[in-house]
Design a protein that fits this description.
Elements (H helix, E strand, L loop, with lengths): L1 E5 L7 E6 L11 H14 L4 E5 L5 E4 L1 H7 L3 H4 L10 H13 L5 E9 L5 E9 L2
Parallel strand pairs: 2-6
Antiparallel strand pairs: 1-2, 1-3, 3-4, 5-6
């Protein structure tokens, strides 16, 4: 699941976009993989926060914007279950809503995410589950 979070300076809710994934680009030097590397660089440095989750809710990748917003290092964040940072109800709502709607994405689901210092960051979740 890929996710995107965005937070503005006015403390308005952020956005979190997710999309479940099963595979990752390999590292061979083909034109397609070079394009994949360029896209990954774009995602990694995008001004909107994005992350990928497994079907079980494990964070498998997060861009620098997510890490900056939540004040975690990549080692502290990636590999953890998403419910360590938001409530289990939010996680279940995303999957239940997405699955009940088939391929229709979840949009603007309000959630609070815990930052490393214990403060809460208001987020709006956008999610595509496949």
């Amino acid at each position: 699941m890929a996710a995107a979070l965005a937070n503005d300076a006015d403390s308005k809710p952020s956005s979190l976009c997710t999309h479940e994934t099963e595979t990752h680009p390999n590292s061979s030097c083909t034109k397609e993989n070079m394009l994949s590397a360029e896209l990954m660089n774009f995602y990694k440095n995008a001004p909107i926060a994005m992350q990928w989750l497994s079907a079980e809710g494990i964070i498998t990748w997060a861009n620098q914007c997510v890490l900056n917003l939540l004040k975690y290092s990549e080692d502290e964040y990636v590999g953890q279950h998403i419910t360590q940072f938001c409530s289990e109800n939010v996680f279940l709502s995303v999957f239940t809503s997405a699955q009940s709607c088939g391929i229709n994405p979840v949009r603007d689901l309000s959630a609070q995410f815990r930052t490393k210092d214990g403060s809460l960051a208001a987020m709006l979740i956008d999610c595509d589950v496949k």
